[in-house]
Amino acid sequence: MAIKASVGVNQGDDSYAVGANACQDAIEQLGDSSPDLLVVFSSVKYDQEKMLQGVRSVAPGALLVGSSTSGEITTQGPLREKSVAIMAIKSPEVKYFAGVGENIAANPREAGKVVADKVKRQVKEQAGETLKTFMMFPDVLAGNGADIVRGVLDSLGEHFPVVGGASGDDFAFKKTYQYVNDKVYSGAVVGLGLVGNFKMGIGVKHGWIPVGEPATVTKSAGSVIHEINGKPAIRIYEDYFGEEEAKVLRTETLAKLAITYPLGMKVVGSDELLIRDPITVDEHGSITCAAEIPEGSEIRLMVGSRNEAIQVARTAAKSALEQLGGSAPKAIIIFNCIARQKLFGDKSGDEIKAIQEIIGPQVPLIGFYTYGEQAPLGGEVKNIERCNSAFHNETVVICALAD
After folding, report:
1. I want to staple 115 with a disulfide (CB 3.0 to 4.6 A). Which of 91, 101, 185, 391 is the partner?
2. 83-129, pLDDT tens digit by residue?
3. For 29-177, where are the E strands, in sequence order?
4. Which is it for strands 365-370 and 329-337: parallel, antiparallel or unpaired?
5. Whether residue 201 sits in one domain with residue 213
6. Which domain holds residue 25?
């Protein structure tokens, strides 16, 4: 029996009812009242506990994972209203196992290892098979996203295929949430392991364009860049924008003002620079990013282009399909950075349409706008020795599942 997937959506003010109605919508479209898996993406507008209770009231037996978002994406495109979106999946050929790693703030790498260990242990004890894919939903407001990925790989192996998206909170950058079954977490990472007879393709691209001259990170610690070319890190923005405009970056959230001007880092194994989002700047001019840029890294200031972003979205979709080896995609999950939504503005649907032109407009699709993405560099999953999963920013990640 083939993979069956469907997507349900609901909006409104009653958190419980919206969760229940979105789940009912998904189940009706699935044509099966007992889905194996529910993937739930929700706005923080809703009371997270009540929303989840509503979902579970309709499908109490399904394994459930999910995340709060900075905007939901479905087969209809990016949703204009704050919503709950749910993908229901059914297939006797695929098994799913979920876990959680808590307290990212204390030790993000350990939280990543804990969640992967939990999933791996369940797979061994209950399935007796090999874990094929790991999907994750981390809270990167609580800690270094790259360290969380590193912890997952500590457990699963250096070249294991990892895909996912960092939870959002409607662009407030205050508190995000992660879901497993009946429980809502914050400051945690949720993991989903997939086992069985299925194919997966991953497309990864960003399309941001480098501007200015290459620079070198001369002092950094974790996700904080202190100096670039021996000068306070903020100078890379001051030199580009001018000191008067750059002063605003010191008084307002850097993430909101510089979101279309991230930093790009040269890495082995990727034909694009790996993007790092600036979030805040302190009184000394040090910039805190969503993940680390190690000392000695070659970096560039990057600028967004709508046309380029659409082109690379198509390229990423083609790459994901090619990896399916001719099989038709049955479910698409997209992890798309909030920066891309801000870049497109009211035209954010253009990017999703470009993806659907490649994969087909009727293939069930769900996704959300994230605070960071996880995927192998270049989307490499076929040659496992070249599969190097990493933490990305400002990137579109397309995960396609097929029989």
Report:
1. 101
2. 999 999 999 999 999 999 999 999 999 999 999 999 999 999 997 88
3. 37-42, 63-68, 72-74, 77-78, 84-90, 94-101, 133-138, 162-165
4. parallel
5. no
6. 4-205+308-402
Q: Which of 371, 399, 395, 369 is nearest to 43 (CA)?
A: 369
Same domain for 156 and 191, yes or no, is yes
**Looking at this protein, which amino acid is placed at residue 28?**
E
Same domain, residue pair 341 and 322: yes
Using CB atoms within 10 Å of the CB of residue 106, give its burial: 0 to 12 exposed, 13 to 18 middle, 19+ buried. Answer: exposed
Pairwise CA distance, residues 41 & 164, whole Å: 13
Contact 188, 140 (CB under 8 A): no
Q: How much is the pLDDT for 384?
A: 84
- 322-334 pLDDT tens trace: 999 999 999 999 9
DSSP SS3 for 64: strand
User: Which of 247, 276, 302 is where one domain is finished?
Assistant: 302
Note whether 316 and 366 are same-domain residues.
Answer: yes
- CA-wise closest residue to 369 among 340, 398, 345: 340
94 within 8 A of 68, measured Cβ to Cβ: no
Task: Give 346's contacts (C-beta < 8 A, 6+ positions apart).
Answer: none
Give 242's contacts (C-beta < 8 A, 6+ positions apart): none
45 and 97 co-located in one domain: yes
List, for residues 338-377, the tens digit of each pLDDT value: 989 988 989 999 999 999 999 999 999 999 999 999 999 9
Q: Do both 95 and 219 map to the same domain?
A: no
Q: Both 119 and 229 in a single domain?
A: no
Task: Check pLDDT > 60 for residue 172.
Answer: yes
| Residue whose C-alpha is closest to residue 302's, from 339, 260, 333 | 260
As for how many domains the chain has, the answer is 2
156 or 223, greater pLDDT: 156
**Tokens 């698409």 identify what position?**
332
Who contacts 184 (Cβ-Cβ below 8 Å, separation ≥6)?
48, 49, 52, 177, 178
Q: How far apart are CA 302 and CA 208, in angstroms?
A: 6
